[in-house]
Structures are given as C-alpha cells and as structure tokens.
Design a protein that fits this description.
This protein is of the alpha+beta class and about 200 residues long. It is built from seven helices and six strands, in the order ααβααβββαβαβα. The radius of gyration is 18 Å and the shape is globular.
C-alpha cells in the first residue's frame, strides 16, 4: 500500500490508487515466474478485432539480455533504473488482418490497444508487490536495431520494474522530493456528458 495521499472522488478498487511509478528501487532479483506473470496480465488486454498488437521484449537484471535493454535508456533514466529488477521494451504491430480481410491492413488502434496492455501489466505489477515505471526517455532507434525489432512494428515505451525502496538517498536530489504518488485531475476535468467541454 502507498501513502494515502490519493483520494478518489468515486469508489474504485484500491489497486487503481495504489499503483504509482517510483524510481527508488531495492535492486533485488525478480523471478522469471513473477515477471512472466506480469506480462501474462498484459496479454489479456482488449484490442480491436482481438489483433493483440503488443509485444514485450524483457530482461531481468544480471542476465545476458539486460545490457542491450539498459543501453537504450537515456542517461537520466539509467541513473535510477540501474537498480531496477527488470526492463521491458514495448512495441506494437502497425498492421493486422481483420476478420474477412484477405491480407493485413494498417491497424489504426495499435497504439491505443498497446496502451491498454501496458495498463494491465502495471496493475499486475502492483498486485504482486512490485512497481512499474513507464519511460519514453530512451533511444527508440537503438532499441529497434539492438533488440532486432523488424519493420512493421513501432517501438513505444520502456518499463522498469522493481521493488520499492524506502531509501531515496541514491536518487538525484531533484528526484527525491518527487518520490511520491502523483495526484490526478478531478473527474470534471476529464469527463463531460454529451459534448466536449471540461471544467478546470
């Protein structure tokens, strides 16, 4: 459970409030079983025509696959993600074959659907007592070449997974004060009935 600095306006399952993205990790080892359980949750996300465009390239710290994924992160993210237990690079297929189509067609929702898979993955991470921190601060072209991502796939994001550490002293000073669950906009600022028009 996180510090109760977040208060929902309407009743939701606590998992949605407890999930957040710390940077202070313990560096402890994550089992392949736990990591694949996290990925399994992403597998069950919804997608248009059940195309399932998401792909997860993963590495656990201390394994031969780690260095290639870690090298794609920018210096800022490397400074804290070096204590992560696992890294995942998420890519999505740009094309899919809808029912009744003779050949694959551009998939206009591959990014939307892959975002849903990331959300499922992040929630499962929290359920297992770990934390997931999504990142766009990484070299997508390096990821494409070094991780063997073929044409027809978009490199979307990287994710660091780790066990949260109470010790924040190893983080840059500017990050230490940000190591807390972030707030959210009020419902009226993101939801409007009938037509576009939001308060706040």
């Amino acid at each position: 459970m996180t510090e109760q600095t977040r208060q929902p306006e309407y009743p939701v399952n606590p998992i949605f409030i407890d999930r957040w993205s710390p940077r202070a990790f313990t560096g402890e080892t994550i089992s392949e079983q736990d990591l694949l359980t996290i990925i399994e949750a992403g597998r069950w996300a919804p997608s248009a025509f059940n195309a399932q465009p998401w792909r997860f390239i993963y590495a656990r710290a201390g394994t031969p696959a780690w260095d290639a994924l870690f090298a794609t992160l920018n210096a800022f993210n490397q400074s804290w993600a070096q204590r992560a237990s696992a890294l995942i690079v998420i890519v999505s297929a740009n094309r899919s074959q809808p029912p009744g189509a003779a050949e694959p067609k551009p998939n206009g929702t591959h990014e939307f659907d892959t975002g849903a898979a990331w959300g499922y993955l992040a929630l499962q991470t929290t359920l297992l007592g770990w934390h997931a921190h999504g990142m766009t601060g990484f070299d997508k072209e390096l990821a494409r070449t070094s991780l063997g991502v073929p044409e027809g796939y978009t490199v979307q994001a990287a994710v660091a997974i780790g066990r949260r550490s109470e010790d924040k002293s190893f983080l840059a000073e500017a990050l230490q004060s940000r190591e807390a669950p972030s707030p959210r906009l009020p419902v009226k600022a993101i939801a409007a009935e009938g037509r576009f028009g939001f308060e706040g």
